[in-house]
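debug: dumping io for the single-chain case to check the tokenizer round-trip. Nothing else runs in this session.
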Amino acid sequence: MKAVVSAIIVVSVLSLTGGAWLLTRQRPEQSPLLILLEPRTTGQDFIFREGQPLILIGFHPEEGVHRVELRDRQGRSLWTHQLREGEELGNARLSADGKYLVYDYYIFKPPRGWLFPHEEVRYRGGIRCVREDGTIVWESRSQGISEGSPSCSPEGCVEQVAGNQVLIARHGWEIIERITVRNLQTGRQVFTRTSRVEKAALAPDGSFLVVSGRTRRERNHYWTQVVHLGSGEPVQVDGAGFYYIFPPEQCLSRSYVLLEVMSEADLLGSLGLNVPSGARQVAEEGEHQMAIITRDGKLGWMGSWQFDPGEEPRPTLRDDGKDVSWYEQQDWTVNNVHLGQHGERVVLLWEKGKRRRLLLFDAPERGQGRLVLQRVVALPSPRIGELGLLSPDGKMVAIYRVSSDGSSGLLHVHFWNQDGRLIGEASVPRYPKDEDGRLWMPEKAWFTPDHQYLAISLTYWRPHPPRPGGYAIVRVPGGSATGRK
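debug: decoded output
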């Protein structure tokens, strides 16, 4: 049976001429599916409801009323929500079931003498949660001060909706000045933090919040807190920062958090573990070791661990025709790492230089939360300009890249399963170039919660300011978890 792969691309009217999709691996068929976006339009969110992927699109006209539309994969508008006169749209997010829309807005009226872009000005705005019929579920209004024209409400930007929680973050210069978590249905404040942090994300089910920062005394002294929103109790580890990537499902699951380790001694000491002689401290960016902790602050795995014979499996695999004791010989610094979890199976996608591997762990019943490495699976070596993405359940890896195809580009996507087998591929022709004729790699990609679709978004970085170019939505091949066709 053929593996069916479909795709849709959403692009800006400023730079798009058309779109078509490769529907099958064996026999290419083109479909005229195309969604055109107006200027000053942003793709805000991507969810899956009633068997179909949905796109949330924000419209930011220079004149007129801002609005948000929910569209299906054919570009048909399912419903539209208009902001009030004078309100400017910041960020917008959908609940996983598509029933609630949460967005932040602001009203900016500079004084007559306001001329300088970094002058402090007062403005007002708020956070609003609405249903599909436009009914306002709750609203939080506030006033604030901004340097120059604001881009979100004074309370902050709506960053994430996970489970029954909404994460709102007010950003400063390379920091987060304030974090607020509100209940999705009531708007009640569940958690507030006013001390500065650098990274923050909710667990996929909204049960806990991860925040990370560093002390000003030591440039590389990082810490990470796991805050259980039910009780508000934080669990803190030192010597490691939260390895945040978008979407957050790639760096934390319902049970585990992915960390970058700067000081092994500080991390192990804060966990109450013995610190071995020669514990490493890293100061160089990009040379960090990796670690996985449980939501309760127990160390599950760390890349620099040296195991005694028989304590952990030492996998070997055939690499370039030779048997290699791969795990012991690796330099565990990273270029790209993703975390996935399915049941008690934890999966790590690890890329470094010319190597791309899947590490498959099991989580046995152990008091310290130790993860046991069971298998190492080799995947194709990374190519220049190529990115890999692990599905949140860890069962599949999507590898995508862009190549030139005459006056436009070609987006390639390949899907691999846990056994290291290619199970499907798709090609998206007429991938748009920017006004200078350059091809840009996709800005980000993510899977729908049921892993049936993959969304890939494009942003143009020239000319300034950056603007969205569109979305490609690719159907994931059937039988992706097991490799069955």
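debug: round-trip ok. The chain has two helices and 35 strands.
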